[in-house]
């Protein structure tokens, strides 16, 4: 096998391999929904609402959350389809492995490792800080006095409490997935009760005038009053911030080998959890901005402050319980996927294989869980993570983009290039159709918009993949123009306008070509509606948000990727392993499975 063939080899799974696992299949739809809520609805509920309302969107933060929920739903639908196609541990890593190839799968998996490690460390640190605040900062004062650290890029003091809670949850994850699910379910339920309590109590103190403040009532620097004091641009800027409050639902997709009937349960859980999260964000933000003028909100702790202002100081304690519960479930949600990613990548040999070992009695990836827990705990103890938090976003947004692209790849894929032709009548119009239209010798410019076949062929699949590659380039170019250009129209140069128009024209032409290609009609438990529109919109949003990240974040990302490539090209690419793939990814589950093999 040549060097390039190794980079492009893809994973295939037979029916037996998709259903068999060394992990414990014990999670129900209820468990998955609560995992999605707990992983996603964390500290953002208690922090982001106040911050965005006061400084960015005002009462229109509700619209910001709605826009963020819709854009998050694009990625969620793509994850749901892949969860129905590939019920395996590994989430976006596995999804990209079966469609794009090994190198891109490694890149996604390596970035997911970074995302979850930093996510775990930052949430552990936040939990410790919040608890420390409740007890009058006694813990931080003690550690600063007895264990000061003055080194650059490190914390002021070693946070042993953050280390302790991380190791405790690591032990819980090692003990078993069911025990972890019970822990998550309990604290997520408590958090939901607090949200309901806040909304119901807040309804008795609302004042609709707070949504219609005049400009004279608003202090200078806080917009123009009304429902949209910062205008439409402020509302959309708020949506970009609120988008990150919906990150976390992908944790559900990592449970493919621990879920009962994952092909149905996982898509349902992803969609339902995202909908419940939106209702919670929307309800709390409406109550907060109706109870108190937006410019008086505390960006660090909006809920306790407004209840104090309303004379309901007792509500502060309920909010504190909810905040701690949300932080604990966020911590569990950040820790839960990482061992599954390590397990999937270790099993394939793209990273060290011992990380994929499953304990025969506990049915959990013990070594991977322990290693990730200790690493995250040490980072939470000694590192200052303020400047590293953005790095979580790169891994997440890159994974979202690849999953969206992979949905398009499979939706327009054909099985004609696989050995045998017995499955083609139900998918591509039969062998005669493929023989007539599948050859590259039949390519003409007309075939770009008039394929002349009822189903996908080798030629139409190639056209779609090539066009999608060009589409991603045009989308990236357009987003770069938007990000680098000023929001003020008078600052736009002639060349900026030309570049924007050229990229826009390229996007339109690529979309027209993709729409005209025939889709695979395989039946699945769940399929993304409105293909190719939803996957393309998901890719646009994710690419735009990635390009909004700072230069230093991209520099750190480059260093992390360099370390990853050293591991992959020094170890992973040499592993033959069991690289499995199955035509079931491209056809109905009722079809007889093909023999496991490597697609080279």
From TrEMBL:
It catalyses: L-ornithine(in) = L-ornithine(out); L-lysine(in) = L-lysine(out); L-arginine(in) = L-arginine(out). Belongs to the amino acid-polyamine-organocation (APC) superfamily. Cationic amino acid transporter (CAT) (TC 2.A.3.3) family. Its main location: membrane. It is found in: Cell membrane. The keyword Translocase does not apply. It is a multi-pass membrane protein. One of its GO terms (biological process) is L-arginine import across plasma membrane. It comes from the Eukaryota. This is Cationic amino acid transporter C-terminal domain-containing protein. InterPro entries: AA/rel_permease1, Cat_AA_permease, CAT_C. GO terms for molecular function: L-arginine transmembrane transporter activity; L-lysine transmembrane transporter activity; L-ornithine transmembrane transporter activity. It holds the Pfam family AA_permease_2. The keyword Hydrolase does not apply. The chain crosses the membrane at residues 27-49, 61-80, 92-113, 160-177, 186-206, 226-247, 268-297, 317-343, 364-385, 391-410, 466-486, 492-516, 528-547, 553-573. It comes from Elysia crispata. Residues 526-575 form the Cationic amino acid transporter C-terminal domain. One of its GO terms (cellular component) is plasma membrane. Keywords: Amino-acid transport, Cell membrane, Glycoprotein, Membrane, Transmembrane, Transmembrane helix, Transport.
């Amino acid at each position: 096998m040549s060097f390039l063939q190794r980079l492009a080899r893809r994973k295939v799974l037979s029916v037996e391999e998709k259903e068999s696992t060394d992990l414990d299949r014990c999670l129900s739809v209820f468990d998955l929904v609560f995992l999605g809520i707990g992983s996603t609805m964390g500290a953002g509920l208690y922090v982001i609402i106040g911050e965005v309302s006061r400084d960015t969107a005002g009462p229109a933060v509700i619209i910001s959350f709605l826009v963020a929920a819709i854009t998050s739903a694009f990625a969620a639908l793509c994850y749901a389809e892949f969860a129905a196609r590939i019920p395996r541990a590994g989430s976006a890593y596995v999804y990209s492995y079966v469609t794009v190839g090994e190198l891109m799968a490694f890149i996604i998996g390596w970035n997911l490792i970074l995302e979850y490690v930093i996510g775990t460390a930052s949430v552990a640190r936040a939990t410790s800080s919040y608890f420390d605040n409740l007890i009058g900062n006694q813990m931080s004062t003690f550690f600063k006095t007895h264990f000061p650290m003055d080194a650059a890029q490190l914390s002021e003091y070693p946070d042993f409490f953050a280390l302790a809670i991380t190791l405790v949850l690591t032990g819980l994850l090692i003990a078993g997935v069911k025990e972890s699910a019970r822990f998550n379910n309990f604290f997520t339920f408590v958090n939901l009760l607090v949200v309901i309590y806040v909304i119901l109590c807040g309804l008795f103190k609302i004042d609709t005038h707070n949504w219609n403040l005049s400009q004279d009532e608003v202090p200078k620097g806080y917009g123009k009053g009304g429902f949209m004091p910062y205008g439409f641009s402020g509302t959309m800027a708020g949506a970009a911030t609120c988008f990150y409050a919906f990150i976390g639902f992908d944790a559900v997709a990592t449970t493919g080998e621990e879920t009962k009937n994952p092909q149905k349960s996982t898509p349902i859980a992803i969609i339902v959890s995202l909908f419940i999260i939106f209702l919670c964000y929307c309800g709390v933000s409406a109550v907060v901005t109706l109870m108190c003028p937006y410019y008086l909100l505390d960006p660090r702790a909006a809920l306790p402050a407004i209840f104090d202002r309303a004379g309901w100081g007792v509500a502060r304690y309920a909010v504190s319980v909810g905040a701690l519960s949300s932080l604990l479930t966020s911590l569990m949600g950040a820790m839960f996927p990482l061992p599954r990613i390590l397990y999937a990548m270790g099993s394939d040999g793209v990273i060290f294989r011992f990380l994929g070992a499953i304990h025969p009695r506990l049915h959990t990836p013990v070594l991977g869980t322990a290693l990730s827990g200790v690493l995250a705990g040490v980072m939470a103890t000694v590192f200052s993570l303020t400047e590293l938090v953005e790095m979580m976003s790169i891994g997440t947004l890159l994974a979202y983009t690849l999953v969206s692209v992979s949905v398009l790849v499979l939706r327009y894929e054909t099985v004609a290039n696989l050995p045998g032709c017995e499955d083609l009548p139900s998918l591509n119009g039969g062998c005669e159709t493929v023989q007539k239209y599948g050859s590259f010798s039949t390519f003409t410019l007309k075939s770009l918009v008039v394929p002349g076949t009822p189903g996908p062929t080798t030629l139409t699949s190639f056209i779609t993949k090539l066009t999608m590659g060009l589409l991603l380039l045009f989308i990236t170019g357009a987003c770069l123009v938007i990000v680098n250009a000023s929001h003020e129209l008078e600052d736009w140069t002639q060349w900026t306008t030309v570049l924007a128009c050229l990229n826009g024209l390229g996007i339109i032409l690529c979309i027209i070509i993709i729409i005209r290609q025939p889709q695979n009609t395989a039946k699945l438990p769940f399929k993304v509606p409105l293909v190719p529109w939803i996957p393309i919109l998901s890719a646009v949003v994710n690419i735009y948000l990635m390009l909004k990240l700072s230069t230093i974040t991209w520099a750190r990302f480059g260093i992390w990727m360099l370390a990853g490539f050293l591991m992959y090209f020094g170890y992973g690419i040499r592993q033959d392993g069991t690289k499995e793939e199955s035509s079931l990814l491209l056809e109905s589950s009722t079809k007889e499975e093909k023999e496991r093999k490597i697609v080279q």
